[in-house]
Design brief:
Blueprint: E1 4-8, E2 12-19, E3 34-38, H1 40-50, E4 56-61, H2 63-75, E5 80-84, E6 90-97, E7 103-107, H3 115-128, E8 134-138, H4 149-156, E9 162-166, H5 169-177, E10 185-189, H6 190-197, H7 204-216, E11 222-226, E12 231-236, E13 239-244, H8 256-269, H9 274-289, H10 299-306, E14 310-313
Parallel strand pairs: 1-4, 1-8, 2-6, 4-5, 8-9, 9-10, 10-11
Antiparallel strand pairs: 2-3, 6-7, 11-12, 12-13, 13-14
GO molecular function: 6-phosphofructokinase activity; ATP binding
Keywords: ATP-binding, Kinase, Nucleotide-binding, Transferase
GO cellular component, one term: cytosol
Length: about 325
């Protein structure tokens, strides 16, 4: 199997709890928190482990919270390489209101990065990534990291390594405005794609047209647009596909996108064709939606839901 590495610049120690009602003023008595290592690339690595694969997580960690996060990674059996990060690793906090089922998510910022921190991370990437590997860069970028950072990561990769990018905001705009030569895969959600397009998509075919246009412009060799509960479209040089998502009752959508990426990349690393990889990603994302808080997916749910995923050519 092709090696997989994930890169997380702005990880978080994820805390999740429940309370009857979220209201201002009184103390809100909560349940004992669930604690998980979080951040885009970390979640991708966690999903890959759940699905029977192996990925090494390259993680920028700082302070005592960073030490706790490293311990949580070890406890989950995630092989990781710690990269020194400035300041204190951030925390995130999710509260589920049991009376309504609504979830409130509080995300703290990461510490400011300096040029020396960026150079150190790039050097560690050069030393760690083997030739031909999949490298998944997912999640937010901390303050001080330039929007074009993904281009520097691509330039640091060894021969044959393939960069998979799942990002948003200025970093996503930077990739679309100034394409990164050789970018293997770019994923975004429907709202992000519509913002880039400057219009609403009428349907999945409209989204697929947009994704195919990015491929034609050389933004990435393969572009995926996630359409929430509907499914995901994929466009590349071989054409356009749509993977219809199975209907599930959503408990928490936290980590669904990262779980999609983990399942998709694992399938590609195992040599499966792109339609099967897309189906795996769609099924895994749906499975993540039926678990609470930051639990991601269960392998048996992915297997069951996979039979309900239909992939069609658009």
């Amino acid at each position: 199997m092709t090696p997989i590495l994930t890169l997380t610049l702005n990880p978080a120690l994820d805390l999740a709890t429940q309370t009857a009602e979220v209201i201002p003023g009184p103390k809100l008595r909560c349940t004992a928190p669930r604690v998980d290592p979080g951040g885009g690339g970390i979640n991708v690595a966690r999903a890959i482990r759940i699905l029977g694969g192996t990925a090494r997580a390259l993680v920028a960690l700082g302070g005592t919270t960073g030490q706790r996060l490293a311990q949580a990674l070890k406890a989950e059996g995630i092989a990781h390489t710690s990269i020194a990060a400035p300041g204190e690793t951030r925390e995130s906090f999710a509260v589920t209101e049991t009376n309504s089922g609504q979830q409130f998510r509080f995300v703290l910022p990461g510490a400011e990065w300096a040029r020396v921190d960026i150079d150190h991370l790039l050097e560690m990437t050069r030393q760690t990534v083997p030739e031909g590997a999949f490298v998944v860069m997912s999640g937010s970028q901390p303050p001080g990291v330039p929007a074009r950072f993904a281009a520097a990561v691509q330039a640091a990769l060894p021969q044959g390594a393939r960069l998979v990018l799942d990002t948003s905001g200025p970093a996503l705009h930077a990739v679309v405005d100034q394409p990164i030569p050789g970018l293997a895969l770019l994923r975004m959600d429907d709202a992000e794609a519509e913002e880039l397009a400057g219009r609403r998509f009428a349907d999945r075919r409209d989204a697929a047209d947009f994704a195919a246009g990015l491929v034609a412009r050389g933004v990435a060799q393969r572009v995926i647009v996630a359409r929430g509960a509907e499914g995901s479209v994929l466009a590349d040089g071989a054409g356009r596909l749509f993977g219809a998502a199975p209907r599930v009752e959503v408990v928490s959508a936290v980590g669904a996108g990262d779980t999609f990426v983990g399942a998709l990349v694992l399938a590609l690393a195992r040599g499966e064709p792109r339609d099967c990889a897309l189906a795996q990603g769609v099924a895994a994302a749906a499975a993540a939606c039926i678990t609470p808080a930051t639990e991601l997916c269960h392998a048996e749910d992915v297997v069951r839901l996979l039979t309900q995923v239909n992939v069609e050519t658009l």
